[in-house]
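Explain this fold:

***
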Amino acid sequence: MTAAARALELLAQRGETLAVAESLTGGLVAAELTSVPGASRSFRGSVTAYATPLKRELLGVDGALLAERGAVDADVARQMATGVRRVLGADWGVATTGVAGPDPQDGKPVGTVFVAVSGPDGAENVAALRLNGSRADIRRESVRNVLTLLSDKLGKNAGAQDTEQNGGN
């Protein structure tokens, strides 16, 4: 079972919903989720905030944080996940931000990625990733990692075992 299918199954069992905020993945997380039959039971929608100002304007990421650290930052990812929950009225939010290449961004090298999960009752987690490969590889691994992070968080909250994670970072 894919991480997307596992997350959607756990969300449906709990009667909870999900919203997605994407930057470097440009809609790939939403596409992965909506490829799963029945996704509409739990998936509310997504915001692709590719341009840095949209992270502030649409998702409520702190402007001073963006000015100081840039968009590729753990706290930015966390605020994106929290912001998309609020904006789209979901129980859970996930976010991706990072550098897929070909050039560095905000002083961060290609392959620097942050994925975040924000849930009810203050449940949140951010993972800092250092991914290798082509632009497509980095984006694909970012999708897999954010959905695995969500599945793991949902599974732990439900008392289930962690999902298996294949591949390397």
Notes: The beta strands are 18-22, 43-48, 92-98, 112-118, 124-130. Confidence is low (pLDDT under 50) at residues 159-169.
